Amino acid sequence: MVVQPSPHGDFHYLVVTRRRTGKERVHEFASEDQLEPGDVLRLDGRYWLIASIETGDDAPPRVVAVPARYRLRLRHPDGREELGGLRRFRPDPPRLGHSFTTLENGQPVSWEVVDQQLEQDEQGEPCLGFTAERDFAEVEALPSHELEHALARSREDELPQSAQAAFDRAEQMGLSVELVALEPGEEPDWEEAERFIEALVIEEVEDDLLELCGVDPDNDPKDTWLETVKRRLRSDLAQFRADVEGDYDQIEQWSFRDGRIFASIGSPDDEADSLSGHGWMCRLVDAGVLAAAGFERVRKAELEPA
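Above: the chain sequence. Below: its structure as tokens.
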């Protein structure tokens, strides 16, 4: 679950995180609920996954937290399981009781998330695992605008083989996948994205995005932060546009159901890299720039490896 801080909470902790710069940071955290490994906290504009809790005699428990990632496992009625790709934890992750739709043999089928637990990816790094089972609450038709649900494999309407290979590669390497989509017939509004960047104010930029854009809050003068962020986002947008309009060197693109899907794959370190396509997409998504251009984040895709 996502645990919110409470100034009058009954349980007090010292939460240890590591900034993008590598500097360790300790947060005092109070909660009305007792924290457990696998819980998710929101600090400094970022979601953190509790990997472990160390208790002492006198001091508050020490909570070790890492950048929160999750993946979805589909458990079929016959016991077969399909594992999705790692995703960055955002405000709209799966949750217990959440229902969603995929395609099977060209027909929509309904699922419900029935379990969540702390687990490790193939590299031994902590992540949150959600398990979904069929609830058989089928719908009559899959809305054409819901590209996110249509990303599940089906025999009649599969993603290209290159997409399945990309998802498989990400799973094997323990990397996260970031996805955005354009609806059928829609083109990016690059000028609107540029206007969005110019209209940003510092109050709209969360701490984590500051660091993703190269700001060192401990040392850089505060009056330089906003221009640093805008400069990085302008560069990101220009590089992202050149890539998707060119040879797709870092941003992969696939046609699907007459729309287009754009994907980047990378590690948490890549999210702050000015030369990484995964970094461009993560920063542009987090800042809202791609949304201004007309892209939609694919929020609940079941990224099933081949």
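The longest strand covers residues 107-120.
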